[in-house]
Please model this.
Amino acid sequence: MVAAGRFLQPPTGFPAVADNPLHEVNTQSKLDLTRFVNFDGSYYYNDAVTHLLPPLNRVDLGLSTKPIRDFSFSVCGRNLQQDRHQEAIPQTELGGYIRRSVTFRVIWEPEEDASKAVP
Model:
């Protein structure tokens, strides 16, 4: 999936809303490596907001597997190409920096027994 666009919004009193990037690109790839192993990748680009935010380039990657019935295991990395990046204009003491992160997940999704299913 690829999404790209140019977004223009009317000016407001809030700098975070008034000044949006003119160009945004988002690409996502989902690949089944085997029957039980999946690889996901995403790339995001947001144009700079004049004098407020630098351009944003972000890469996210994920690997998941479902080796046991009803269980899935995954590891996902976000913002892998840099230590941190700024996504928002700080309005108070809270800054708008997003750090690199790695997430591990275990999900249990029990399948309903067909003999007990209600029609």
